C-alpha cells in the first residue's frame, strides 16, 4: 500500500458498529467478566485493556497507524513530544551513562537534557556529525562504553541542519549503540529513518502529524531491530526475555505505565484524523516554504535560511535531494539584523499567525 492509502486505512477497523473512524474510548478503566480475565490482561496473556495509562483502544489505533507509516515494529504514544523523549531515554539509561546529541536540537530537548544531568546522565553535544568527529568523541571520552545512544533530529528545529541518517546509523551500530531520531520536522512522508538504519523514531505529534494544532502529543516508534546487550543496558535487563522487543515492552509495561506520560484518547483520535491528510499537507507546506524562502531572499537586508536556497554543492542540499525526496520541510528562518527589525517584520504580517508552533495548517 502507498503512503496515503495506509494513512487512510490502517489501524481504524471498528468491530462493534463499523464506525469509519476509531471510536473515542474516553474512559479510564475497562471492565471484565471475571477477576481471572482482568488478571490475564494485566499479565499480557490476553489482548484486552485494563487502564488507559497502560493502554486504550483509541490510542492503540493511532499507534498502529503511525507505526505503519514509520515502518516500525510497535509504537507507544505519549502525552507530548517531550514526554516521548524523556520516557525513551529513562527507559534505557542509568546514572553514569552518556549520550551523543546534536547541538541543533529543539530548545525544549536541550532544556530536558540539562535536567537529566541531575540524574547523572551526560550529553556530548556535536554540530559536526562526520564519522571523524564522532569517532573523536569516542576516543577522547574517558570511558566510551558509557556512551549509550546517538540522538538527532532529521531536520533540526530551527537551525535546519540535516542529518545523514544512514551514515550516522552505520557509525552507531559499529559502536553497538542505537541511533534515535526525532523525525518531527521531516515526518514519515519525507523519510522513514528506520529504513535508513535508525533504531527508534520519536515524534512530537503535536506538530505536522496532528496538523490542526488541537492536541499536544508524542509517540515513540521502535524498529525492534536493535540487539540489546543487557549487560550494557542493565535498565532493560528485567525485560531480557523479550530480546529485540525489550525496549518496546519496557516502555509500555514499565516506564510509560509508571511515569504516566500517556496519551489521552481524545488527542489520539485527533491525531489519527490528522494523519489522513499528512501527505497532502506536507506536499503543500514544503512547496509554500520554498516559494516563501525564494521570495524573501530577494528582499534587501533579510538573510533567509532554507536548505533549498543553498549552493548545489551544499551537503544539506544534497541530503534533501537524496534523503528527503527533494523537499526541505516547512521551517524557514530569517535574520533581519536586529531584534527590533525582526519584531517589526513579524508585527507587520497580515495573514500569518504570531505563535510559537510549527505544522499548524493555518
Ligand atoms: C515541538 C518539538 C518537540 C517537543 O514536542 P511537544 O509535543 O511540544 O512536547 C520535540 N522535538 C521537536 C523537533 C519539536 O519541534
Which features does this protein show?
362 residues, alpha/beta, seven-stranded mixed β-sheet, 13 helices, 11% strand, binds pyridoxal-5'-phosphate
Verbal overview:
- There is one protein chain.
- Helix content is 38%, strand content 11%.
- It contains 13 helices and nine strands.
- The strands form two sheets. A seven-stranded mixed sheet has the order 1-7-6-5-4-2-3, sandwiched between helices. A two-stranded antiparallel sheet has the order 8-9.
- The longest helix has 20 residues, at 278-297.
- The chain starts with a helix and ends in a 15-residue tail after the last helix.
- The model has no long low-confidence stretch (mean pLDDT 96).
- Pyridoxal-5'-phosphate binds at residues 80-82, 106, 108-109, 153, 157, 182, 184-185, 204, 206-207, 216, 218, 358.
